[in-house]
């Protein structure tokens, strides 16, 4: 599948109907999702036939794209039942069968239950800017426990040094694959502008 084709399929994925501010529910744009997944697939061969987890899966754009790139099985985890319902509807509309969903709080889940059960973890986690400071690192810790090979994640560029320090402490290799401008739509009342651009790193973590 070509990149443009993937992006145009992902434009059909339904997103949050009433996004929940405290859960940082903003979807990954079809363009960013397609570029991420295409790179994970074509450059690193970490999707085809792999067991993939999508942490904070929301309405499923990353999982659905991974399934389209022939992931073996994709398991989406999210705390929010409403988002998972939309995700489930999306999978029916796309007639995708190799996806499972788990509703749980990734901050309190015992990630050891899933220790090294997945080849690849993909995620666009909450950034920790809504009275939930540190949630991005909790997601990353869980992701690294659950993956046996690679984790691909989006993080605010301003946190890069901190994340690199943690990756060193945890003994995993971190690579900045791309620096993105993330267009955060003004879906919340307190945003005065139509959209806000923030600098985001697309990171790869490899376990040796
Ligand atoms: C930035 S959105 C990303 C959504 C989706 N992955 C995407 O790429 O469009 C973050 C997601 O994390 C979920 N989330 C927030 N806090 C969570 C928690 N403690 N446990 C599990 N999921 C959580 C939200 O419901 C939301 O779907």
UniProtKB/TrEMBL annotation:
Gene coding for it: METTL5
InterPro entries listed in its UniProt record: DNA_methylase_N6_adenine_CS (IPR002052), rRNA_MeTrfase/Polyamine_Synth (IPR051720), SAM-dependent_MTases_sf (IPR029063), Small_mtfrase_dom (IPR007848)
Start and end residues of each Methyltransferase small domain: 43-144
Similarity comment: family membership: Belongs to the methyltransferase superfamily. PrmA family.
Pfam family, one: MTS
Name under which the protein is recorded: Methyltransferase-like protein 5
Coiled-coil segments on the chain, per record: none
GO function term, MF aspect, one: nucleic acid binding
Recorded superkingdom: Eukaryota
